[in-house]
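Exam review. A common question shows you a sequence with its structure tokens and asks you to describe the fold in words. Practice with the pair below. Do the first one on your own.
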Amino acid sequence: MSVLCVLSGCGGGGAGGLSVSDVPPVEDARFDVNDIGVPTDNMNDSVDDDAVTLAPSYFETEEYWGNAYGASPLAVTHFSDAYARGWTGKGSLIVIADTGIDVSHADLAGQIKYGIDLSGTGLTDTNGHGTHVAGIVAAAKNDIGMHGAAFDADLAIAKVTNGWSYSFQIARQAAAWGRDLGAVAINMSAAYQRDINFENTLVKLDDGAYYSTHAYHGVNGYYNSLGEAYAWKAALGPDQVLVKAAGNDGTIYSAGHNQMATATDDDGALILDGQMLIVGNWDVDGEFLRGNAAGNVCVTWVGDHCHDAAKIQDSFIMAPGTYIYSTYHNGDYAYLTGTSMAAPMVAGALAVVHQMWPHMSGKNLAKLLLVTADKTVSGYDVNLHGQGLLDMEKATRPYGAVGIPTTGRAAGSVAAVSGGAMIAGATPAQFAAFDQVMVLDSFERDFYVNLTTRILPANMPRTSIARAGGITDHYAAYFKSDQRIALPILLGDWTRMTLGAGMSENEFLGNRLSGSFGQVKSSNTAYINIDYNRDIFGLNGFAQFAGGMTHPQVETRESLLAGVSTILSSSWTVGAEIPTHQTDVNAPSRIGLAISQPVTIEQGQLNYNIPVARTKAGSVLYKHHAVDLKPAKRALNIASYYDQPLFDGMGHMRLYAEVQHNHASRKSQRASRIGFAFFMTL
């Protein structure tokens, strides 16, 4: 069937392939887009890694502004943000079902990958409309004229008409051709002209929607949109999206072939299953919608009830379409206005997001653009503006619930990114694998977040030789008094052994994990201290050597942690005291000097499974990473103290100073303190 229409003004309105309420809401607390990355080469060998690091302003060239009257269409829809994240449509194929193309145009010749003439008049565009539409999608970025929304995408040109008439049946052949080529979308900038006889059969409902009383159009949609939807579903295949201009008649509703989007089968399911977008023309400078609006016209009205599974507004999206500068026939450029100019910008957007995530179905690609569209446009009304204005900044950042995949499947559950780790002696090298942890959003799109900022060094020492005034039990400081035992055993006149054990909650030897890094529930430690004291040449020499074994109990669910090994640790102290006078033989004052290594992990590791990529088939790829808990540098404490007995040894006054080297929680890796203590011995 051929219908006369002005192509640059053709279009229509249509319902979405799903109810927007089916889409999970955007989280209030999103990731900062500056702290989250996008995949580089997991599934796309063609991605330019260097482009990911560029700022949006780098892409805002003269071509980007494109001789626009007023605001640039690409700027209004924030395409430079998508480009800066590395995505330009490379590897994506878009079918243009139109009046052909200027095959030798400087901005298009290198973009044409396939061509087919279904009109019998040759592929060359003698009208200009098809060339204009193709340029909006994918005109090259070559410092000439302007560039398209997806300037690295490929074009499949299907000439379906040579003039102002358009056959939707021939366009359907182009869709099947594109399906077999693996096209992401087919752009159809055409629609039925306004039909007054049909409009006279429309009845307005209380919610602002319409239905037709026409015996045929009222139950099958205008010109059998219901039956056409089945034919188009087969032509599109499982993933190709139909991008259709909404039309320029200025009606508050959309009908015609736009109704295919809401056509519903006998089981209550949308026939096109969300693989259709209806595109309205948002006049950026005037801040109003030109052409047909998103009002709904029921496809199947039976028994005083609309049997459609969705409304036009559910798949209605807007893009700039007024005075759009683009390629034209005979090597020229031209300004054209209409929903025909708005639709190819959306087709280009599909090419961009498809390059980012080629695993996404056509249904989800369309849904992504809809749910991320900007609803802050002037006078926004869902019945007029549908889901809002195309917004590529939002479309290329995480959406909905974002988390770490824990089941091995992209479609499985995700755990929220939370918590952190405090690890003694932690260094960036130990946690290098955490700088590119894959997270998935509600569309199963993979993004990459740096979790190394959530890892802090823990300062393990909890005891002070200086404050204690000599040998102390370093291990005992990690346990509460009612959660430890210690059994001293004399081995000789100068040697004592202590067998000890204790339990800590929520940590092991001062190390803590939470959230995505796992959860330490408790830990049990057994240790041995060997103490040695002996007077040598008037000095009181002392030493302690200790070793321990720790078994952490951890929770690994909803985290990256796979397990923790048994941990071996050690500690030692060497020092000497000088009595300063002997007025009280039983309690002389003394000056002490000691060097010690606090409890230090000698062997042990945290085992993590870190998601690093996803496949097109939906499997999550993990990389095993073991964090060696042995610090790169050992902490050393140098202590000095002066102890003055009081009240015949019943009390003590102690002045002390201490310097800690390789202090984990200080940038300088050094800490010092001077203190005074007074205490009584009971």
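Now try the second one, then compare your answer with the model answer below.
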Amino acid sequence: MKPHSSTGNRFTQFFGYLIVCNSQGNILGISENFSSITTGSLQGLLSTSVFEFFKKQLKLSAKALLAIEAIFLERSDKKILQQELFGIKHYLHIFRHEHRIYFEWEAKEKSYTKNFQMDTISFLLQEKTKSIWSEICTSIRNIIKFDRILLFKMEDSGIGKMLAECTAPNQESFLGKQFSEDFMPLEAINFYHTSPFRYSPNIHKQNVKLLATEEDIDIFPCQSSTLPELHIKYLKSIRVVSVIIIPIVIDGKFWGMLIGHCYKEKIIDFQKRQLCAFILQHAVNKYEGRLKQNLLEYHDKIKDIELDLKGKLLSTQSINCVLVQNMETLCKVPEADGLAIFHGGDIFTHGHCPNHEQIEEIVQIVNSTNKKPVFKDSNFTYTRGKSINPPLPFAGLLALEIANRNDYYVLWFREESISQIYQIKPNKDRNLLTASEETFRNSAKPWNDNDLYFVNRLSKLLHETIVSNSKEQEKFNEELIKLNNELEILTFTLSHDLKNPLAIIKLGTQIIHKSFGEEAVEKQKWTRNILDGIQSMETIIDGLIHLIHSKSYKFSKGPVPMVHMIRQITDEAKLLYNCKRTNIQFGKLLPIWGEKSLVYQVFLNVIGNAIKYSSIHESPVIKITSNQENGYINYEIEDNGVGIPGESLKNIFNVFTRATNTSKFPGSGVGLSLVKRIVEKLGGQIFVNSRVDNGTKVTLCFPYSGDIPTSIYTD
């Protein structure tokens, strides 16, 4: 979208003269103020040769005509000349814009060469300055003698802030004032961005009409182009008469602008305006150099943090463990007020965060609205969080989805930043605007490029770790397949090799059985054969046991989130045993230090038993809770089911053993035996307390590791 001046694209300011022609040199437009310095009808000049007009009426020099010819021949796109126009020295700006050529004159001021002290811009030569923007405001004001010079910075959110200021004595201060995004619409940004400076010596003077043969002549590239109507109205409302605006562009992006206000008409010579733009550009270059240096230092800092995290990730199988262990650092780098890790329903927090129920709702909102791994919203509470109760204790949210899993997030929170922001509103006089200060809430400091850089680097690191772990798991699976093949061969071998000793035992036993009348020597011979056969079987079995021990399953332990797992198991068990009416009461569900698949097997059996054996109760109730005590995480699963008789309780962990009152329920008697073996393999213990018709309570005790912070258990 191209911006146009406040009064349309058919008017210029009073201080300039403008001619627009096509590439053939025919005049398409001429400013009406030429009538005061030329003879004849301006309308009659339209569509005629611009060269004829220059030679006969303006009497341009041969040097100027050659420069103009170079523009037409496309040897040059822009020229600035000094030419006399009816006895007065003027600057002549000649430039090409799209398929048209523009000629713009403005008078040259006699005093433009007035000397100024070198110390006015000496700060540009210094290695370090405390406030480069304050010093640039002071320097520009010393050159152009305006009443006020301001430095305006526009944030990514569109809100602008006055960062620096230099004013004449007894003038109102604008320092620190913030203006809403309405103050700088895209049209205005484009208008200022496309010129080295914009200037009006008197915004109250009547503009000059452009007589034209075509409606679409665009004069916004011209020096005399009028300012956006929005800004003219606002400047009039604060009694400003003369204004200069110099844009600040960093990395090709509109960053802000230097603004000069004067309460009386003030003409600034073109060269002096160029000087101001030149000084500002040098200051911007210096500032940009600082930004790049700061960025390098920031990237070095991120690299150090990344290397530290990478080392920890390589030394453990648990990504979640490393994230929880480094929550303080992860929170501090993007300057967040709080951080949460959401992992399969388990939540770990650091700093100022919402409660766990709110975090679960936030994750649901992010999942439903975001299609990318990184989500950011500096106004999350205002735009999306109104439905969450009670009110959220933060305003801005930054979220990272880990490994494309919608149940695994790192969440950063920023608290509300209460701001006084000026809103631009129409005055009673419709030709004016006023800025009224209003209080804005539910907004946080915006997440910037550095924040996103850190989060994206973290995302990449975690992705690489997950891929690496997946490759290790794939390698383990290949070894497991190989082991299974070896066991298959072993099974075949055993089935073949055991036949011979078994045949001998069988035959010997048959002979003994039939030869009670024979000599004792003969009986001893067959007895020896039986013993030899048994010995052969023992040797084979011992070899099998040794092989199984040498090829035993190896696993690594880490923190296992339990909230999501236990809720999933209870939902599945209620469906399996057709007992949807079961009331599941959850307490605190702490993570366990173990191996996820083994832990899953333990709770699948124990919770499944609790739901199964209480299903005949009219109102089945299952209570699941955990606590931390004496170096263990203790889980209690209690039901109000049939219970276990005392005579069966002592044998409950034996394989194929079932309680005497469970014949009505399906089962093999293997579950609790398997649970006991797994729990002991994880270094834990299991206890069962029960009374017939009063239910059963199973207590599972898992040791927790000192390798991870206590907060992962106690949060």
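Model answer, second protein: The CA atoms of residues 233 and 432 lie 4 Å apart. The chain is about 40% helix and 25% strand. Full marks require stating both points clearly.
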